[in-house]
Design goal:
Layout: H1 3-7, E1 12-13, H2 19-24, H3 36-39, H4 41-54, E2 58-60, H5 78-93, E3 97-102, H6 117-131, E4 137-143, H7 146-159, E5 164-168, H8 182-191, E6 196-200, H9 205-218, E7 223-226, E8 232-235, E9 238-241, H10 245-258, E10 262-263, H11 271-281, E11 296-298, E12 303-305, E13 313-314, H12 323-331, H13 334-346, E14 351-355, H14 363-375, E15 382-385, H15 389-397, E16 404-409, H16 412-425, E17 428-432, H17 443-459, E18 467-470, H18 476-479, H19 483-497, E19 500-503, H20 515-528, E20 533-536, H21 541-553, H22 561-567, H23 572-576, H24 587-593, H25 596-607, H26 612-632, H27 638-662, E21 671-676, H28 684-695, E22 699-702, H29 709-719, E23 723-727, H30 734-747, E24 752-756, H31 762-767, E25 772-773, H32 777-788
Parallel strand pairs: 1-10, 2-3, 3-4, 4-5, 5-6, 6-7, 7-10, 13-14, 13-20, 14-15, 15-16, 16-17, 17-18, 18-19, 19-20, 21-22, 21-23, 23-24, 24-25
Antiparallel strand pairs: 8-9, 11-12
Helix pairs in contact: 4-5, 4-11, 5-6, 6-7, 8-9, 9-10, 10-11, 14-15, 15-16, 17-19, 20-21, 24-26, 24-27, 25-27, 26-27, 27-28, 28-32, 29-30
Amino acid sequence: MDLRKFLEDRILIFDGAMGTMLQKKGIKPGELPESYNIEKSEIVYEIHKEYIDAGADVVTTNTFGANRLKLSGSGYSVEQVVKSAVQVARRAAGEKFVALDIGPIGQMMEPIGLLTFEEAYEIFKEQVIAGSDGADFILLETISDLYEAKAAVLAAKENSSLPVLCTMTFQENGRSLNGTDPLTMVKVLEGLGCDAVGANCSLGPEQMLPIIEQIVSAASIPVMVQPNAGLPKVRDGETYYDVSAQDFVSQVRKMADMGALVLGGCCGTSPEFISCLRAELDGVKPLPLAEKRLSCACSSSRTVEIGKGVTIIGERINPTGKKRLREAIKAGELDYIISEAVRQTETGAQVLDINMGVPGIDEPDVIRRVVKEVQSVVDVPLQIDSSNPEAIEAGIRVYNGRAIINSVNGKRESMDKIFPIAKKYGASVIGLTLDEDGIPATAEKRVEIADKIISTAKEYGLCENDIIIDCLVLTASAQQADVMETLKAIPLIKEKFGVKTTLGASNVSFGLPKREIINATYLAMALSYGLDAPITDSTLESNMQVIRSFRVLTNYDERSEAYIAAYGGEQAAQVAAPQAAGEKRSISSIIIAGMKDEAYTSAKELLCEREPMEIVNEELIPALDIVGEKFDKGEIFLPQLIRSAETVKMAFEAVKEQIISSGSASVSKGRVILATVKGDIHDIGKNIVKILLENYGFDVIDLGKDVDPKLVVETARKEGVVLVGLSALMTTTVNNMEETIVDIKSQLPGCQVMVGGAVLNQEYASAIGADFYAKDAKGAVEIARSVFGASQE
């Protein structure tokens, strides 16, 4: 199907919730919804038919959780369930469309969890292959982790020719659970070749409006929206959603007026909602799509616009001329590489160049491991730097974001190898102005090579905003007369082609004494000629002085706030003397930076001077509190929070060893039971809470998922636990949560209960009898601290 062609004339209307309808049809708590495709296929057919009769253009298959992990133990294979689901949907849809529905895997991906990118890809691949025959679209939905979305999109694009639509879930703060903002989601998924992007679930239509506005303003492809029918509430023991079909449609119409082109419903919606939506949108002319071009690079939680106020690309993770880094790469010392990444981001780098070009190593494998490790610690975008196309693809494939490739040049062989990689993964590319004749002597010749690079890039489907031209500086010591030609080329190329520019400015000083003087001067000159993104050493204060000053003088740093913050107050001394390479960090800074490999050693050294509990109470917990405050303020996000928690765990191990060897009292601050309630097999949220509680010093008894209320009560009684945490993701299992709470309260009156999960809020938690509602993992920690008393800390 040509989705764009269809959307020229009318808005595409998807169906509503499957789970809500299965509840109405009598599905029992704990029953596997996907099993209905085989065991009770007529019920699934009826639901699809009701949506078609209500006016839906598309029905989604009943395969949201039909992956090998969730189907384990069901007696059915992925192929059996998915093929049956597609057949049922196809029979009901008739001349209408069928979307193969693929939801999240249900396990945390690296670095938060154990599921690797490669494993996630294989799980999604299996679903795609099983369901592509008979479907018209592939819908990847309700995904909260951009990394998981990337694995799913690649699996869909590489194993099917169907259009791929991908929607993520967002919280009211405008970010996904893992910290992805709408702009970043759009730029990454658009780059990967999605045919539509958008948002679904988690929020009602009114709460989703500002998120959709951001998505529409950033997207050049169709935008899809499937809100919930408001927020879940309890009435007479039954769960319901608080937005009527009429109110739902009035808000969704606003999204259509913004430019959303694919609309439907999620949790709590029904054929009534779709019927009202069809009536509202019949005859409404879709807004035409418009190109929204932006030269940018993205991490999973940040989009950096290239050239906006000077974009600093950190150069230090490149072994050229760096003996210590070469040794670290050969020896596999990832902690040294991580420390270089952290130092650069702390001193102002906005993008990090990653180059593992050392002879005698498996460069693709090394760069793959380094990219995974670096992106788990810092939240700035990465630039994958290699002369080996295989290494570039290895790094960029596992990168969680939209990377920059460094580099391509004007040789046809280079362009034919690199541009397909850039197009497939949605990367920007640095184009070096050299060709078969080498680096040209004149600015004009550099312009000619840039023209060839940009023209060829367009042949591969890239555009100007995907290209960053490097005019290549020569060394003043050897080719002094040609140094200015590089600078002259910068404005010529920008004016003629409208692209951004970069430059490894420090090359100019090679072979000269006091290189930093030449480097800083040339950097200032290049910026005055229009350089957008210098590749430079942000840990050298002379470079940062030039850039901060330039931002003031070009009116980017309004009211000179950043300049004054750096040089006018208490921070001035710290800025003037950034941490040197190899300098020992405090254990607090190690925790805040998430440098796991250094935490244990640092704690062991500290234990030679201080008492274990003194370290816990005066160093570890306060450091984790600082990280928590940054998380609350939106300065960091879940991956960084968990990374710091795991870093604390390494330090705790050293402390516990010391306590055990000395025969002292336990370091535990209290015991907490965690469980995902009966009938619910989703435990990502619970596992995140577990990690954070343990690293704040609490002992956690994890009962797992699909836990019977009796087991929760028996364990709490046996272990003398006074705080139980219950989690639920599915609306169909909230009644089991309430049942568990009732049993706890009736049999263990001194035991308190905190609850959390995507379908819950404070009002709902209170209605089912919970003592506390934990909005997120940090909230659960605060509840535990209040229950067990701050005096223990």
